[in-house]
Amino acid sequence: MAELYVKPGNKERGWNDPPQFSYGLQTQAGGPKRTSLTKRVAAPQDGSPRVPTSETSPGAPPVGPPPPSRPPLVGSSLSSTQPTNFPVVESETLLEDVLTPLEQALEDCRGHTKKQVCDDISRRLALLQEQWAGGKLSMPVKKRMALLVQELSSHQWDAADDIHRSLMVDHVTEVSQWMVGVKRLIAEKRILSSEEEANEEKSTATAEQNQTVPGIQQAP
Amino acid sequence: MATYLEFIQQNEERDGVRFSWNVWPSSRLEATRMVVPLACLLTPLKERPDLPPVQYEPVLCSRPTCKAILNPLCQVDYRARLWACNFCFQRNQFPPAYAGISEVNQPAELMPQFSTIEYVVQRGPQCPLIFLYVVDTCLEEDDLQALKESLQMSLSLLPPDSLVGLITFGRMVQVHELSCEGISKSYVFRGTKDLTAKQIQDMLGLTKPTVPVQPVQPAQPHEQPFVSSRFLQPVHKIDMNLTDLLGELQRDPWPVPQGKRPLRSTGVAVSIAVGLLEGTFPNTGARIMLFMGGPPTQGPGMVVGDELKVPIRSWHDIEKDNARFMKKATKHYEMLANRAAANGHCIDIYACALDQTGLLEMKCCTNLTGGYMVMGDSFNTSLFKQTFQRIFSKDFNGHFRMAFGATLEVKTSRELKIAGAIGPCVSLNVKGPCVSENELGVGGTSQWKICGLDPTSTLGIYFEVVSQGGRGAVQFVTHYQHSSTQRRIRVTTVARNWADAQSQLKHIEAAFDQEAAAVLMARLGVFRAESEEGPDVLRWLDRQLIRLCQKFGQYNKEDPTSFRLSDSFSLYPQFMFHLRRSPFLQVFNNSPDESSCYRHHFARQDLTQSLIMIQPILYSYSFHGPPEPVLLDSSSILPDRILLMDTFFQIVIYLGETIAQWQKAGYQDMPEYENFKHLLQAPLDDAQEILQARFPMPRYINTEHGGSQARFLLSKVNPSQTHNNLYAWGQETGAPILTDDVSLQVFMDHLKKLAVSSAC
Lengths: 220, 760
Prior knowledge:
The structure holds 2 protein chains of 2 kinds.
Chain A: E1 6-7, E2 20-21, H1 23-28, H2 95-110, H3 115-133, H4 139-153, H5 157-170, H6 172-212
Antiparallel strand pairs in A: 1-2
Chain B: H1 4-15, E1 17-19, E2 23-25, H2 28-33, E3 39-42, E4 75-77, E5 82-84, E6 91-93, E7 116-121, E8 130-136, H3 141-157, E9 163-169, E10 172-177, E11 185-190, H4 197-203, E12 233-234, H5 235-247, H6 266-280, E13 286-292, H7 315-319, H8 326-342, E14 345-352, H9 359-369, E15 373-376, H10 382-390, E16 403-412, E17 416-422, E18 426-427, E19 447-453, E20 459-465, E21 472-481, E22 487-499, H11 505-510, H12 514-529, H13 534-552, E23 554-556, E24 559-564, H14 572-581, H15 592-602, H16 607-614, E25 617-622, E26 625-629, E27 642-646, E28 650-655, H17 657-665, H18 674-693, E29 699-704, H19 711-714, H20 744-756
Parallel strand pairs in B: 2-22, 8-9, 8-13, 13-14, 14-15, 28-29
Antiparallel strand pairs in B: 1-3, 3-20, 4-5, 5-6, 7-22, 9-10, 9-12, 10-11, 16-19, 16-21, 17-20, 18-19, 21-22, 23-24, 25-26, 25-27, 27-28
């Protein structure tokens, strides 16, 4: 599950820089809008400006407080921008939990992928380890990497890919050097796994063939 | 019976088409007297989640000069297996595959609800998409680092099969050879001398692009034999090396002396990019993405010299004919833009700098090819980063929204001719019987090319009425390359009724679409503003408005107070008033680059967004009820209201004086005043929805009464109260605006006087 958050923009470098939305929020946008702010009001044809009612007159001395709401509800409703409550992971995400499955995946690919590519991936996994052990990676990155590895182990290639993308978008500074290696690893595992499935289908087909042909003597 | 508003809306939802007039005047003379030309806004690739493409090819009319596509308006004789083309009346035989059709078993393209239908073309090779990054290295360290990271991130967003390439430039231009082998090589060009396409291709050692690459390992199922080049490699192969290459990019090494600008050879860099793609991948979808942090200062296409004490041209300089480099630079980029467009390639410009970068001279690169123009302050801002990410946004099917290499063909029934189109396109110079001699926009053709487009890209298409006949009909045929690399054809066929303008004017009036008319006239105005003087354009716009009011207003001669407009025209004068004040026609207070950028976005957005640009939306939030739209007028600025203004380029939240005082006092943190907290949050939530989806990302201004940023709101609202007339209204309501600008009331008064006067 990608995180949903909004950070303020970079006010130092850009005047009125808009807020930054996380990858999760950006990919969410596109569903039906709650409110479509596109209506207009026609100007009165006779030319006089509308005089709307106003509670206070401008220039008056300090006004009283706003109209109070009903007595505060217990368990008041959340504002819509608060992120939904995820179960808080109390334990630290362990480096081994992430690195070991990745290295295993790399080993699986060695027979099938070019040596140079494997070396390149291996180099980047080493970089990941170095940065993690050196405390250079933030908690959200570690948590999401753990999720990525889970998806990878369950052969959920698209989900793993999506998590890699969300990390690249939200935390590019931390992950850019080594994440491309993880991306490649997911791609190679996907290919390997689809080949294995294809081979399995072939071998089950031939096994069935052997069974259905009667009278063939088995080799001693 | 549905009102015209519903009719208009349904048609837009289904076909992506909005006509200025929905009942057409039946003679040429009457049509010219309508003032607003018969025209439509067309969104060729409007998102239609409910319209799955059909997997067969369209059936064409057999007459060689017609070739219209079978559509719901055609008469069909099921027994004889014939159909009559509704454009040329030719009788055509159905192809053998249609043997089984009947009244109860119709093919989709004959059903009325499929007035818009999409076909998938099965034959032909599917070329991968191509992305060529052209990167300025004369940036500050922070900016370069941020840009590098955005580019590295983009490698994760690109389709894995697409090809990617890299050219970097500063004083010299470097074309990087992408290889998996370790050592990175590049070809270096001097930034001062322009080269022809052939010279570039020779120097880069480019061979004919028809040699297929043999797959090295047959066991890799996703590696199809396709063309590639040393400079453009598939993302899935090259991403690791390219990530490293990008990470190692350094600032341009040439030292910049005190008082000087860095030497930037943008003109040659773009020229090499265009030449490289021309030589390797002509006629297939490609994006040249130019990232620049300052103006071109060297070589062909330079926009300003390297002396900082000589500033880059302003509008004042241009008016006084004091912009030395402008004509030559514009010509250089126009030449490149036309070549790219001829090859079906689009050019994007991402310009992030605090001063101007030459967008005025380079705008043809984006406007002729359909590429994007993004203007920001720095690459290290959320505005650039997120706008850039959104280029790679996907639709509900998981496909990229961007599309390539489109050709739009327009066919009309005999009574109409095509006067031209305004939008991100180039003419294909296809003459024919339905092409008018009177040009509006890019005319003299019935076909245009749009090299880069997306589901919001909208063209304005202008017609001429020549006579009256049966039902007037228009067919829009868009061939394009979908982001999945499939070739597709989107066909929209629409028809409208005629009416005699003398006896049935009321019918024509009732079917007037004032919103579409406003945008179509605005596009004409902005088109004119590119070549005419500003005041002339305003005079033309005013004259058209007066004539329209004279024709369609109800009034007693010489009596302005009797003037009335019917509902279908009531918003139109307001649109024209705000258009006159808009940055599209008023260049005062904007640099030439800013004006070019605003006009670029205006000339391609759909109707709703275009209207927001002309007349910003203003919503008011208060304790009195749900959020409501209010007049874009100073009288809407009240102490106990929060205003949300959307100008398309900016989202402004403005707290009225009392609201601001309450916020300062901290009432939102007290549990008894929770409704105040909700009130403060409501506009923020609505703003967030807009910010999350819009391309390009707008600026976000959160201000309050008395704040300096409040000027964004104050400059847009109609100044019905100014320091001149504040006391004339008697009671003080709303905030007076310190301006000498004419207000809407004064404008309307003058308009009415002129409309009812028999002197005009």
